[in-house]
Each structure stands twice: as C-alpha cells, then as structure tokens.
TrEMBL record:
Protein name: Pyridoxal phosphate homeostasis protein
Highest taxon, organism lineage: Bacteria
Secreted among keywords: no
Cofactor(s) of this protein: pyridoxal 5'-phosphate
Native source species: Paenibacillus barcinonensis
Length: 247
C-alpha cells in the first residue's frame, strides 16, 4: 500500500469493474464512496484531483473540520457513515447529503427535529447488523422492516435503502451471507410498498470485501484503507465507541 492515492484509486476502480463484469452488472450502478476517517486533507485533495467526489466520515467533529476545508471543491459531497449520537445531529445535518447509519427511531426523531428547523429533507439509509455481532451498531434483520416503516413517518427523512458492515475477520462465504441477507431484506421491504420509501441503495462492502459486495448487489461501496493506506487506529474504536451509545 505504498502507492499513491491516484494509483490505488486506479486499482480500486479496476476491481470494481471486474466485479461488475463477473456479476453482469452495469458499472454505472456502483458508486465508490471514500471512507476518510483519520485521513489527512492533502490525501483527500489527491482523491478529488483524481476525480473522486463522494466522501464519508464517521465522526461529527472530524466531518466539521474537513467539511469547511473541502468546501472549495464544490462538487464534493459528504456522507455520514459512523455511529451518530443524537447530540451531534446538528453538525452532521449541515454538512452531508446522506446518512448511511440510521439505526434507531430515536435518531430518526432527532434528525427530523433538526431538519424541520432547517426546512429541508435528508436522504438516509437504515443500518442493519447482518452479522449479529454484539460489537456492531445497526438494527437486527428482524427489526429492519418495522424500523424502516417507523422512520418513513418522519416526512423530512427519505429512506433510500439499507447499509451494513460485513462480518469482521470472516470467511468470504460468511461475508457473502451478510450481504445476501441485506439484499433479501431490501427486496422484502420493497414489496411492502411503504409510502415514500425507496429501496434503491445498498451500501455495503469495504476494502476487504467490496468485490463480494458488488457481486451481491451493492450500489455503494465504502473504501478507505485500499485507497489511503492503513489508519493506525483500531477500527473497533469507530464501531464500538462506548460513550453515549444508548442516547
Ligand atoms: C472505515 C469504514 C469503512 C472503510 O473501511 P476500509 O476497510 O478502510 O476500507 C467503510 N465503512 C465504514 C462504516 C467505516 O467505518
């Protein structure tokens, strides 16, 4: 991973193209979202220069710092992909076009309250814990449809699909089962024809498993390490912050 951001991006795009080819999918239906937690701004700017436009952050504070600095690049859009505490909603709503990690009704309510104040709407994905790992955020697969339905009643929230994180340190087959489950859930929810709910997006797949995710129907893959190199911060820190979890 000693290569430049630009070279790494070429490899990722090539892997995306190959996965699309393997699974008979149109490459235009798979969007690359760069996961940028802990990545310094000069590297983000390299990615912008190389043509990338979608960036995802995990923390409200880091998003705020990077957002203002990255605003020079007008086409850049930010997504929020981390665990979101209700008291951080205001900062996040200001900066992003989509939140991938809505996993509970209380967060939906907090987002709605803020969005009403700002007289706008927000695209959201509902995060599902498809691996049933205790360390992971996300609604259980069993609760998915009910949560989507409840969230859809907030008229400022536009549910666009589902998001998941594949099982960690798992076999390819276990990972594939997670993604397959997310796809099945999205089909089941779509069949319910819930007003104002679209099941268009499946946000799944990271550096280690985005090829499998694309084979299983991902429309957004979230890639960090493969492009920017290792992070020197344990991933668990982002997925299992023990502060204010149940707010
Ligand atoms: C960090 C992160 C990613 C990217 O992970 P890599 O393994 O670095 O590609 C994707 N999704 C979420 C939610 C993340 O926190």
């Amino acid at each position: 991973m000693g290569n430049s951001v630009e070279e790494n991006l070429k490899m990722v795009r090539r892997q995306i193209a190959l996965a699309c080819e393997r699974s008979g999918r149109n490459i235009a239906d798979v969007q690359l979202l760069l996961a940028t937690k802990t990545v310094p701004l000069d590297k983000l700017q390299m990615a912008v220069q190389a043509g990338e436009r979608w960036f995802g952050e995990n923390k409200a504070q880091e998003l705020r710092d990077k957002y203002s600095l990255m605003q020079q690049s007008k086409e850049v859009e930010w997504h929020f992909i981390g665990h979101l505490q209700t008291n951080k909603v205001k900062d996040v709503v200001k900066a992003v076009t989509m939140i991938h990690s809505v996993d509970r009704l209380k967060l939906g309510q907090a987002l709605h309250n803020q969005l009403v104040k700002e007289e706008r709407t927000m695209d959201i994905l509902v995060q599902i814990n498809t691996s049933y790992e205790e360390s992971k955020f996300g609604a259980t697969p069993e609760m998915a449809a009910e949560l989507v339905e409840s969230l859809s009643r907030f008229e400022t929230l536009q549910v666009k699909g589902l998001m998941t994180i594949g099982k960690l340190n798992a076999t390819n087959n276990e990972t594939r089962q997670c993604f397959r489950l997310l796809k099945q859930l999205s089909i089941q929810i779509k069949e319910k024809n819930i007003p104002r709910v679209a099941m268009e997006q499946l946000s799944m797949g990271m550096s280690g498993d985005f090829g499998i995710a694309i084979e299983e129907g991902a429309t957004i893959v979230r890639v960090g390490t493969y492009v920017f190199g290792p992070r020197y911060v344990p991933d668990e820190y982002y997925w299992n912050e023990n502060t204010e979890i149940n707010d």
